[in-house]
Amino acid sequence: MQRPSWAPEEIDVDRPSAARVYDYYLGGLHNFSADRDMAARAVADWPELPRIMQANRAFLRRAVRHLAAQGIDQFLDIGSGIPTVGNVHEIAQAALGEARVVYVDIDPVAVAHARALLADDPTTGVVEADFTDPSSVLDDPVTRSLIDFSRPVGVLVVALLHFVGDDRRPGEVLARYREAMAPGSHLVLSHASADGAPEHADEHRALYRRTATPMTMRSRDEVAGLVAGFTLVEPGIVYLPQWRPDDPSAPLENPERFTGHAVVGRRD
Amino acid sequence: MTEPPAAAPAAPDRDTLDALAAHWAEEVEGTSYVPMAADELQEHLLELAGLVVEAVRAEPPRPEVGAEVGRRLVAAHFTGPSTLERTVVLLADRLPALYGPEVIPAVHALTGALAAGYAATLRDRTLDEQEAIRRAVLVARQHTEQALHASEARFRAMFHEAAIGIGLGDMEGRILEVNPAMTRMFGHTADEFSALTVGELAHPDDAPAVWRLYERLLRGELDNFRVEKRFFRRDGEVIVGHLTLSLVRDEEGRPSYQLAMLEDVSERHRLQQHLTYQAYHDPLTTLANRARFTERLEKVFADAGPHSTRRVGVCYLDLDGFKTINDSLGHHVGDLMLQEVARRLGACAGEGELVARTGGDEFVVLVEDSQGVDRLVGLADRVLAALAPPLRLAGQELAVGASIGVVEQAVTDTTASELMRAADITLYTAKAEGRGRWAVHDPSRDEAETARFTLSAALPMAVAHDEFFVLYQPLVSLSDHRVRGVEALVRWQHPRLGVLSPALFIGPAEETGVIVPLGRSVLETACRDARDWHAEFGSAAPFVSVNVAPRQLHEPGLVAEVAALLDRTGLPPDRLQVELTERALTTDEGAPLKALDGLRAMGVRIAVDDFGTGYSNLSYLRKLPVDVIKLDGSFGEGLREEELYDEVDERIVGTLVDLGHALELTVTAEGVETAAQAARLRELGCDEGQGWLFAPALPAGDVATMLRRGEPLGELTAASPSRPAGLRAGSRPRRRAGPRRDGRGA
Asked: Which regions are flagged for Basic and acidic residues bias (chain A) (predicted)?
């Protein structure tokens, strides 16, 4: 019999998980051989991938610091994955001393791990929910207990929406989150794209088809469509390393090889 | 040697360290993800560089510091193996270059310790993180299992507690699992069910289509179907179940189970049947009702194609005099009568015949596939025969009669509504022909009857618009053919149809009550015209004979009205004659007789019209306040032809004349058409005659002209003395049925 929709999905560590593959790319050790196999195959085809993932993680770090500098001290990190290194609460707490962060993921293992890791930190919370069901995220008691939506909040959808196909209308879903965000809130978004490396895109998508989360690459224009309704923070939509680099004077070679779009938008 | 003093090594100078750190950062950048900005990274490595330089230059060197550096690299998340490689190469290369070859042994020792410290820390970290992620998997699995258990428990509870019966069977039809609702529904235990197959739940009433659907489901051609069917309970009782059978497929889409959901709808079904029964049956008689009858009749037509040879018939039946019974004996007796009639009708009906009660005392028998009128006529005869024996109801014997309209037609020649209209008209005809009989639908008569129906509706307006006028037909003395009186005959000047005879509208006028104002108006006109003749001709003026309907006699003000009219017009009462039908006089009710007494006391003469056609109770005639009898024209028919006369008719007429005279009544013959007839009637002693021989019905002005001429009317001859006894009419003319209000010579 097929698994009916009411039965929870089985945990199958023989099947690669996007969250654990990402962890592996970042040098994490929270992964299994199926994850590493997949990552190895991906890297064999696209050697820059680990650097792209690192660039993505670095963008997250810079964006959270930017938000913290704007006075934002509460964050909703959706699609947070395996809490590995350079987590949002670490960055924010380092910058502000105190910040509240809710991590949201659909991967039960990532969620279980995050809960174990953050069990002793009352300023953080973990929610198992689906991004495309905004009320399940926004109305979760954990979310409600940590985040005050009447104040500016940082909503992070970093390296997430390429796992949400057009059939699930990510733009409309984002708009639902936007409506819940108080003015002054920020959206941090990065998105895989084939724009800079079209020769790798098909192969990469094929690999992700084996995971529970197939990939949808989007162009710059499509990403612009997703964040419609937000006022884009300088420099707008750029390749990952180009978003407010730590050292603006440092030369950046072939930024398009870091093929992912980064953007931060403000809710006015 | 001009080497710097080998005393305590000088603190490493800052610039050198910065450069080393920068170089180091450059080497390891990108080998691992480290959550630090470039300057932070360099800061971190500067600290480590300081430790390293201090360790190799210490006296004695402290290479074990390398282990700490390796540990801190991993702690900063320099977990990529190339970080270690690049670090070792960098230190081995740069430290001797910066601080001289004498540090080489220390550098070797330190990098070795660094590699060991790095590896040990990374190993620990790896084990920790692997353990963490495995624990996370376990927790997640546990969570999933709990959720699964919870949902299974929920679904098991649902399965157990469901009010609907649920059963799971395999593809061979074996019943694998049933819930308690199912066991309750069938009275089988779960174990007994497991010995059953789906096929054993068949019921002989199952439509073959049900099991065809089942076969298709088993073959995987259908994913589910719903059906309402009967099932046997264990105790043999039948239940009606609303069954939804669904196919359950495996992951490859192969049929693997069948899932039945069954709702016991027996109660609803019973209620539905009850409601349907109520909707289609008459509660009093339990016969089918009008709705059921109409549906069946329409189905006969709907089922027949354009080339169908199918025929259909109805006997449409109405009890005679039912209202009187109901009014005089009460509704209870009326109801009992209807029930008994229904029972007798039901006994008359055979295969393919539906008996329905369609109205108060209206019944209909529908004969599907009638194959000719004979069957219907036979049925009508049976029905009349069945109703003939008196009914014993509420301690008394009551006679009931019925009139039946019979229609039998090819389905392609008519429609359901046309058939019923024809039945209605035919029933009316049967009633008009004198009740207690049937009449068969005659399409040629239909038109007239239809007109009659439409006329009926137009009557009240016609009276209001005064569309009627009066003609007069002379009544002559048979002895000299001189005019003695005239009979007033009403005509309807219909705006579209022209002049209409009373045969078309008197009946409806009586039924609708319009006869009362109409009769009043005719009476008034007749009295005025007669008064005018009287004024002109004095004692030679004719009396006027006016028909009065039974309904008018029941009007309480009739006598006073006539008195006032005579007074108003100045017509002497003895110039007015009132004609009544025999039927009006033979009712046992008092009001009409009192009215007649009142009229007679005034001097008005009373004539009995159509004498001999009704229920002639001669003993009654003796007591009635009557002056004249008018013999129905049919009695004289046999006397018309000189050569062919009917001896029986002659005797009857003779007897009636003698009877009339014995009662001191004037006898008038109607329908006199030949001189021979007039002569015979005169010979038989008839006093007066009326008919075409003398004159048709004339306008008042023509009557005056005729009176002025003062001549006898019609050929006055002696009766033929030779009556050859052998030349009798071959057949007696059929008595005409139907009301003959006037008809003669009109």
From this structure: 254-268
**CATH 3.30.450.20 in chain B, residues?**
162-270
Query: Which residue among A1, A2, A61 places its CB closest to the CB of B35?
Result: A61
Distance (Å) from the C-alpha of residue B165 to the closest C-alpha of chain A? 21
Q: Compare all CA atoms of chain A with the CA of B79 and give the residue at the minimum distance.
A: A27
d(C-alpha B436, C-alpha B422), whole Å: 19
Give the integer Cα–Cα distance in Å for A122 and A142: 11
Any chain B CB within 8 A of the CB of A71?
no
Which residues of A fall within a CB distance of 8 Å from B144?
8-11, 108
pLDDT in tens, A58-117: 999 999 999 999 999 999 999 998 887 788 999 999 888 889 999 999 988 999 999 998
CB contact under 8 A, B129 and A30: yes
CA distance A248 to chain B (A): 11
Find, among A174, A185, A190, the residue nearest to A244 by Cα. A190
Name the class of domain B472-709.
alpha beta
| C-alpha to C-alpha distance for B126 and A260, rounded to whole angstroms | 29
Q: Assess if CATH 3.40.50.300 describes domain B162-270.
A: no
Note whether B53 and B12 are within 8 A (CB). Answer: yes
Query: Is A108 within 8 Å of chain B by CB?
Result: yes
Structure tokens of B565?
A: 């009219």
CATH superfamily label, B281-441: Reverse transcriptase/Diguanylate cyclase domain (3.30.70.270)
Would the pLDDT of B729 be above 70? no
Work out the average pLDDT over B513-523: 90
Q: Where in chain B is the domain with CATH 3.20.20.450?
A: 472-709
**ipTM of this complex:** 0.86
A253 touches chain B (CB under 8 A): no
pLDDT at position B741? 37
| CATH at residue A56 | 3.40.50.150
In terms of phi and psi (left: phi > 0; alpha: psi -120 to 50; beta: otherwise), the region of B124 is alpha
pLDDT in tens, B254-287: 889 999 999 999 888 888 888 888 888 999 999 9
Residues in B closer than 8 angstroms to A108, CB to CB, are: 140, 143-144
pLDDT digits (tens, 9 = 90+) for B636-680: 666 766 655 667 778 888 888 888 888 889 999 988 888 888 888
- Residue position matching structure tokens 């009551």: B398
Between B498 and A184, the higher pLDDT residue: A184
Backbone angles phi, psi at B476, to 5 degrees: -115, 160
Q: Shortest Cα distance from A85 to chain B (angstroms)?
A: 7
